[in-house]
Request: fold
Amino acid sequence: MKKVLTIMCASLVGSAAYAADNCAAGKTLNEGVLTIATGNPAYYPWVMDDAPESKNGFEAAVAYAIANEMGFADDAVTWVRTSFDEAIQPGEKNFDFNMQQYSITPEREEMVDFSLPYYSSAMAVLTTQSVADKVGAPTLDALKGLVWGAGASHTGASMVGEVISPENDVLLYNDNTDVTAALQANQIDAALFDLPTALYLSAVVVENGALLGQFPAERSDNPDQFGALMADGSALKPCVDEAIQALTDSGKLAEIEAEWLQAATGVPVIE
Reply:
């Protein structure tokens, strides 16, 4: 029995090495090591307690899942820190890839490379705790009775009308700053923002802010998509893309999202 277990373990180790040899060999900053960057500091719920090596938090967990899929064991992953802006500038990098909620845009792709998306942002309902307490369970029927606000040019304005169809007209404002001010002044009950923005606004900007729920990304016409950022022309991009595609196909990415962006944040999905 011990011999069988030894053979099985050797096979698993060999498979990991084989995957790395066939894709990542000679393509990482340091041979046999995958260097991943995050923010300085890195924030909840993307990285918990500013400790990416714990694998806790959405992007920390995704980073290790990608690494493992590429054939790197956890102890072959090393972390560095960068600011958001410095990492997105053209030129050499001190990381193999960087995960800091980078939206994939044509303008940025002129300076750096992006992996396939590892996250398509949901739209979340931002409100205040007093409104959330009155609403209770965030059903569509309950949401229809709220007074909604939105930036005049924001995609949330059309989504409120199409998906929620509120009983009252949507109040339009110049920008998101005006929307959050209206929410704070009790002129409106709720507004839609992409989940990362909504999490930030509820925690930092809106006093007693709360999130009622989130709509699946597929309910949005053009959801924001996050990709792992790499140096322009990175030879490692096909390896990272292959790993993300495998994690998507297997449902592993969806499992990580459910754990860290639904359960951990307490923001339920509104069906």
